[in-house]
Amino acid sequence: MEDTLLHEIFGVSKSYRSVKTEVEHGGVIVAVEPLDKLYVCPDCGSREVIRKGKRIRRVQTLPIGFHPVYLEVEVPRCQCKGCQRVFEIAPPFARPTRTIPKR
């Protein structure tokens, strides 16, 4: 999917990029992942982090015609090499407790 459509129409931050787009069961699924610049420790600000896995969040967004559109957002889990804090890089466009993005 073109990044302009992803950022301007669906409201995804420019710190994320599209990895793949597929049509599945009558809906459109767009997989997005964070750029490397987001891998920063929230406590000490260090960019020296270890990736410790990830989880996928599925967030519903604006439909295209009669087809629902879902963003599959990669939420990486990291550990800071300096202060040893374990944290997740949560998407700023999706609330933690909802499956509909903030606009």
CA radius of gyration is 15 Å
Q: Helix share of residues?
A: under 10%
Terminal Cα span: 20 Å
Biggest sheet details: 5 strands, mixed
The 3D shape can be described as elongated
Q: What is the mean pLDDT?
A: 84
Taken as a percent bin, the fraction of beta residues is over 45%
Oligomer state of the chains in this structure: single chain
Total of helices: 1
Q: What's the SSE pattern? A: HEEEEE
Number of strands: 5
Class of secondary structure makeup: mainly beta
Uncertain runs are: none
Q: Give the domain tally.
A: 1
Ordered list of secondary-structure elements with their pairings:
Blueprint: H1 3-8, E1 16-24, E2 27-34, E3 49-64, E4 67-80, E5 86-88
Parallel strand pairs: 2-4
Antiparallel strand pairs: 1-2, 3-4, 4-5
